[in-house]
Every structure is written in C-alpha cells, then in structure tokens.
Amino acid sequence: MRPETFRFQLGSFSCLAIMDDAVRYPIGMFLTNLAREKYEPLLRQRGQSTQEIDLPYICLFINTGRERVLVDTGIGVDGMGPAPGKLLSLLRAEGIEPHEIGTVILSHGHPDHIGGSLNEDGKPAFPNARYVTFREEWDFWMSGPSLAELPVNDGLKKMILASAQKNFSGVQAQLDLVHPDTEIVPGITAIAAFGHSPGQMALEISSTEQRLLFVADAIVHPLHLEYPETIGATDHRPSQMVATRLTLLEKAAREKSLVSTSHFAFPGLGRVVPKREAWEWQPIPATRASVS
Ligand SMILES: [Zn+2]
Fold first, then answer.
1. What is the C-alpha separation between 89 and 163, in angstroms, rounded?
2. How many angstroms is it from 210 CA to the middle of ligand 1?
3. Which residue from 46, 142, 187, 259 has the fewest beta carbons nearer than 10 Å?
4. Up-side HSE of residue 68: CA atoms within 13 Å toward CB?
5. CA 288 – ligand 1 centroid, Å
6. What is the Cα–Cα distance from 186 to 67, expressed in whole angstroms?
7. How many angstroms separate the CA atoms of 106 and 117, rounded?
8. Residue 270: enclosing H or E segment and its boundaries?
9. What is the DSSP string of 232-251?
10. Residue 1's pLDDT is what?
11. Angle, vertex CA 127, rays to CA 211 and CA 63, nearest 5
12. 56 CA to middle of ligand 1, Å?
C-alpha cells in the first residue's frame, strides 16, 4: 500500500483513507485560546514540534457494495501549498476512476474539503456524481459572508470565500442540498456538526453492526479531545463548535465507534476514550489492514 492510502473494512463496506496533501501550519492556529504553558509540555512529551504541524488533508472513499461514495475532495487544482492535491491520482492508482463515483459528500465549504470538486476546466471532477451538502452550508457561502468572525488575514478570507463559491457554483447542477439526519445512501447518514462552519456535516457510517463516525473539522487536533473548549482560527461559530464537539466526543466514546478525522496523523482513524473530565485519542496503527 502507498503511504498516502490506507484500506480498511467496516462490516461489508470497503473503505480507503486518502491523504490528498499535507500542509505546514503554525500549531497555535488550532489552539488559539489554549495557553502555551499548557500545550507545549504535552507536545514535547509526545515528541512533536511545539511550533508547527504538518496537517494532512484526508479524504475517505467508501464502497458500500451498492454505491461508491467519496467524502470530501481535498485541495484540488488551485492548491493551497505549492502543488495540487493528489486525490485523483491516488484514486486512480487504486483502480477507482472519477466517473465511477456516484456520490460526493462535501462536509463543508473550506478549501481543503471542497477544493477538488472541479477539474482544471472548471467542470465537476466527478461527472456522474450527486454532490451532497447541507442546505445551511450552501446558504452561508452563497450569501457572500464577510468572514469578519475569523481571526485570519484578508488574503486568506478572500481565498476561502472564492474557493467555496467557485466549487459550490461549479457543481450546482449536480448538487443535492439535504437536511440533518438524511440517509444519503444506505448506511451513511448526515448529522449536523454546525459551528466550525455554519452548516458543517458529520457522518454516521454503519455496516453489519460496525460504526464509523466521521467528524470533519469538529475536531482538528488530538489536543481538542483533552481540551475540548479549544478554538481554532477557522472556527466560524466557536461556541456552537464546542457544543458540537462535546456531543460528537460523548457519542463516539459511548458507542465505542471507530472515528475518522480529516486532519489527525494519517490515516486519521482511532477511538475516543474517556480520560479524567475529558477524553483522549487512541489512534489505529497505520499498519493494520482491518480495524474490525
Ligand atoms: Zn479542514
């Protein structure tokens, strides 16, 4: 297996985690209200940098047997770093052609999740797919928001808004705007994870008694389990985000479900276990081919 792809089985569903890209960020961007004295010792103990993080952009492919589903499209041709995302070439290397994808789920409108929705010609990169997102998310981005709530520079705000509007408009003819608790395809249900963005979608994926909870960017760093009130610079509605995060973490721990994240160390899969008044992350070793 390539280092950027990780196959796993969930009941009868064949799944593939795909690392579209990895981009270096200052770590403080994800821990804006957590004191350095609190997190630096923890990162040091874990042998991690206290300054920067190489953040993977992880997409998920699920073959349910009846449907081929892609969750998020990565950074795409416009890129955020020096190169375009690798999603399409990695899918092809696994024998999956874009025209075979029947459903593309867009968790939210940020460029690292929606950026690969179009090809170089501005046409849907997955020509036969129904693209699915929450109506609340579409409404937010298409209303032309100022993004004044985000403590990031104007250049980044412009780039985020332009990417959302370009990609959402470009797939409009294939777009299905759904509401929370919609079963998108049998075994994959959309759940509201509002806050990080106003209409973010998490997913409950289940097959033959096995569950996978995809949390999108409700949780971006493992320290968000230990300090769940920690806010990132791209959280649009911080207090709503924290409430969503608590709900998802409680659910994941209670149901002992496998959890899929977009930005934890690849493949971003693990479990949430209670620790003191909060939780901690138990990653699935990247060498295991099955997580059942
Ligand atoms: Zn993200």
1. 21
2. 25
3. 46
4. 13
5. 25
6. 9
7. 9
8. strand 269-275
9. -TT-SSHHHHHHHHHHHHHH
10. 65
11. 25
12. 9
pLDDT means per 10 residues in the chain (292 residues)? 90 97 95 97 96 97 98 85 85 97 98 95 96 98 97 96 97 98 98 98 97 98 98 98 98 97 97 96 74 46
d(CA 129, CA 170) in angstroms, rounded, equals 13
Distance between Cα 60 and ligand 1 center (Å)? 13
Sheet (strand 269-275) strand order: 183-185, 188-192, 201-207, 210-214, 258-260, 269-275, 278-283
DSSP state of 7: E
- Distance (Å) of CA 72 to CA 182, 202, 230, 254, 275: 17, 11, 24, 26, 31
Residue at 119: amino acid letter: N
How far, in Å, CA of 122 to CA of 169, rounded?
10
CA of 109 to the centre of ligand 1 (A): 9
- Spacing, Cα 108 to ligand 1 middle (Å): 8
Cis status, amide bond into 238, omega within 30 of 0: no
Q: How far is the CA of 266 from the centre of ligand 1 (A)?
A: 14
The amino acid that residue 40 corresponds to is: E
Taking the centre of ligand 1 as the mean of its atom positions, its distance from the CA of residue 262, in whole angstroms, is: 6
Distance between CA 160 and CA 155 in Å, rounded? 9
- Cα 214 to Cα 107: distance, rounded to the nearest angstrom: 9
pTM exceeds cut of 0.85 = yes
Helix (H) or strand (E) holding 214: strand 210-214
Q: Structure tokens of 72? A: 């998020």
CA torsion through residues 126, 127, 132, 138, sign: positive
